[in-house]
Amino acid sequence: MSPLTPDVAAIPKAELHVHLEGTATPDLIRRLAARNGVQLPTERLFNPDGSFAWNDFLHFLESYDLAAAAIRTGADYRDVTYEYLAACAAEGAVYVELIASLDHGKNVGLSDEEHLAGIAQGIDDAQRDHGITGRIISSIVRNFGVADCEDVARRTVALGHPYVVGFNMAGDEANFPASDYARAFAIVHEAGLGCSVHAGEHAGPESIRAALELPGVVRISHGVRAVEDPDLVAELAERQIVLEVCPTSNVVLGVFPTYEAHPLGALRAAGVPVTLGSDDPPYFGTTIGREYELAHDRLGCSLADLREITETALNAAFSDTEGLVNQPDRRADL
Ligand code: ADE
Ligand code: ZN
Description:
It contains 17 helices and 8 strands. The protein is α/β, with parallel strands linked by helices. The chain has a single domain (14-24, 81-331), classed as Metal-dependent hydrolases (TIM Barrel).
């Protein structure tokens, strides 16, 4: 990928929507598989050019799980976290919330404690080496079932890990309605975690409305299909519900046909607070820096708008982000 333009590179960035297993590049997945003696299903997982293979959303979720099965130890989770945060720091990111799934750790035989300790080590090492702050959002996956999701909610609260600052729900929104997961959200909301839900990506405005009914939800992952319902857009603006928007993910997964058709600009114009995220960067051929650049080049955002998007993200973060842009050169930018 070509380097970011200097103007965009200089802007401090913050990312609230990226899936930890989905940050691991094909190269890292191959390295981890070799280290763990795991045979990857190479034909199904990779294209001939070495990129991840998928051809629609449900196939993407399948490839994601196949690749994630190569991440097996606390040290692996440390490396996935560290490599991603280091890459973000190189693009000017100061803060990243990593959506992590206890299910994926459990699937490979890791205890929740080992899983989180590995991620936390990656966060600490990246902070030390690159000055970037990372925090963890514990995620449930709708299509793993209600009972599993409630179990993850309880385990998240029981762990009480200081870096786990929020809760999210990912997976197949079209076939697994949000209302079934109210109890899971009640558990984490009562424990004080900030909540966000994937909605309005592969289902329409009703899915977003249902997500907003869940206890504690103040952000929506994607939410872009709100644009189909002007009343909902007005409600999001009125309630200042923050959308964690991932333009490239939306375009490559076919939610919108082109960047020019993407509603980021329309949502901003209507007063809806938006942030930028890369979702699953190597699957979608993007990075957080590239999302900022695209927003500037193709989605009508000025450099000042990009700074405002970062400010929105830092204000909507589920942890204290005070002072993260205090470095003299960055302070001037915001
Ligand atoms: N899990 C990883 N990426 C996702 C996405 N874009 N939507 C829903 N679940 C996901
Ligand atoms: Zn996502």
